[in-house]
Design goal:
It is found in: Cell membrane. Keywords: Cell membrane, Membrane, Transmembrane, Transmembrane helix. It is a multi-pass membrane protein. It is a single chain. Helix 4 packs across helix 16, helix 6 packs antiparallel against helix 15 and helix 12 packs antiparallel against helix 13. A two-stranded antiparallel sheet has the order 1-2. About 70% of the residues lie in helices and about 0% in strands. The chain has one domain: Amino acid/polyamine transporter I. The radius of gyration is 21 Å and the shape is globular. The protein has about 450 residues and is mainly α.
Length: about 450
């Protein structure tokens, strides 16, 4: 019986919608402030050159090896239990940082249109005030999309395709408005006064977080239509990285055209939206921009909700976490994993917008760790199974895979070691240490449990 599932277009919508969310509105001004216009563009090009080889690695593995669960499942098959646990544990961290970030950001977008939302103050935490309406908006989005994904992949897929289309339309309108109303003199300074290299490196460390999303494809590969050409998975994956990079570069140029140098930038505010409204003088264009951005936010959360639930479900089913998290519902969804994600996201929302910057940094590190182990696994795959059928092969072969390993390793080391250009900072160091200790405890507990079961 032929399985009717996700097509190449569906996989592209899943990955692209997950990658291009609200990052372009919230973080593009910060990239420009840190690096300057030309510096931010250079940083995005370098980031793309880093991520594209990773995309090639993912493409080769997901088209050549049939496993369920994404990265950790490939690493498990090729490198064993401990490396696969490290991969999955850090990837879960990356996903868990993504959910509250998205939920907190969507309330900021709505608050721009309706300032009265920022009333009924609850408390101030990490230097930012949390308001009751913003909290309610975040919670409605989290639990609404959780319910949608619990209904099954078909509902999630249809929603993702429609929302991604609206997102692309809003991009076109945004670009036209910026080129029509922007001023070329706003493009200056081309590089940050703090130094070209340091500014570019700061931008890269943030961009890595927003370039993730292509990895949703391997996690949902088991939902593919039975007639799909495996190479279409690779095309969707690499195409997402290429198009995402190009759009981010356009966003940087357009943002520079409308933003005035010296505008205050922080992750809880929306200086680009305000600058766009001042430049165009049109509230309607701003409303369209915000609606499109909210669609992007929702596609990001929806895509990662689907992929994250599959990751956690498969991770648990493999004996790395509570086994009930891997149970499938009658709709063939990991309902318990979806509920787990929703609960963690809810806790994150209660922490407020002051959590945004640490989440970006920590999430970027987590994804780098997963990418490193995927590249290592691809190298092992080449060594162990040189004659295996590969519908897609990494262009350039082992040297490109080795390059991916080298770059990921260098960036991880620079983020962890204090005092480097992209070191994470004290709060992230503490959070990372807590996550590593928790991971060690979880790994040892379930390893012991697995040994006991085998000895019975």
């Amino acid at each position: 019986m032929k399985k009717k599932g996700m097509t190449g277009k569906d996989f592209f919508s899943l990955a692209f919608g997950s990658m291009i969310g609200i990052g372009w509105v919230v973080s593009a001004p910060l990239w420009i402030t840190n690096a300057g216009t030309a510096g931010a563009i250079s940083a995005m090009i370098i980031t793309a050159l880093i991520v594209i080889p990773i995309g090639f690695v993912y493409s080769e593995l997901c088209t050549s090896i049939k496993v369920v669960g994404g990265e950790f499942a490939y690493v498990f098959k090729l490198m064993g239990r401990l490396p696969s646990f490290i991969t999955g544990w850090f990837l879960i961290l990356g996903y868990l940082t993504m959910y509250p970030w998205v939920a907190l950001s969507v309330s900021s977008m709505i608050a721009y249109l309706f300032p009265q939302i920022e009333t009924i103050k609850l408390y101030t935490i990490l230097g930012n005030t949390l308001y009751l309406p913003e909290l309610i908006i975040g919670l409605v989005m989290i639990w609404g999309l959780t319910w949608l994904n619990m209904k099954g992949v078909e509902s999630s897929k249809l929603f993702q395709n429609c929302a991604t289309t609206l997102l692309l339309i809003s991009f076109v309108i945004f670009f036209i408005g910026c080129f029509a109303a922007g001023k070329p003199e706003n493009l200056h300074p081309m590089f940050s006064s703090n130094g070209k290299i340091s500014g570019i490196m700061l931008a890269i460390s943030s961009m890595i977080f927003f370039m993730n999303g292509f990895d949703t494809i391997p996690k949902a590969a088991d939902e593919a239509d039975s007639q799909i050409n495996p190479r279409n998975l690779a095309k969707a994956l690499v195409g997402t990285i290429l198009l995402g990079s190009a759009i981010y570069i356009l966003v940087i140029i357009c943002s520079s055209l409308v933003m005035v140098t010296g505008d205050e930038v922080n992750l809880g505010a929306l200086p680009l939206v305000a600058a766009y409204e001042n430049a165009t003088g049109s509230k309607l264009l701003v409303v369209i921009m915000i609606i499109g951005t909210i669609m992007g936010v929702i596609t990001t959360f929806n895509g990662f909700d689907l992929a994250g639930s599959k990751l956690i479900g498969s991770f648990a089913a493999s004996g790395f976490m509570q086994h009930s998290l891997g149970d499938l519902s009658t709709k063939k969804t990991h309902s318990n994993s979806l509920l787990f994600i929703a609960i963690i996201s809810t806790i994150g929302v209660f922490m407020g917008k002051g959590l945004l910057a640490p989440l970006i940094t920590l999430g970027g590190l987590a994804f780098l760790v997963a990418w490193l182990f995927m590249a290592l696994s691809c190298l092992v795959f080449r060594r162990k199974q040189p004659d295996a059928t590969r519908p897609f092969r990494v262009p350039g072969g082992k040297p490109i895979i080795a390059f991916a390993i080298f770059v990921c390793s260098i960036l991880i080391i620079m983020m962890i070691i204090p005092g480097t250009l992209i070191s994470m900072g004290a709060m992230c160091d503490i959070l990372l240490l807590v996550w590593i200790i928790a991971g060690a405890a979880v790994y040892l507990h379930y390893k012991k449990q697995s040994i006991e079961l085998r000895n019975r």
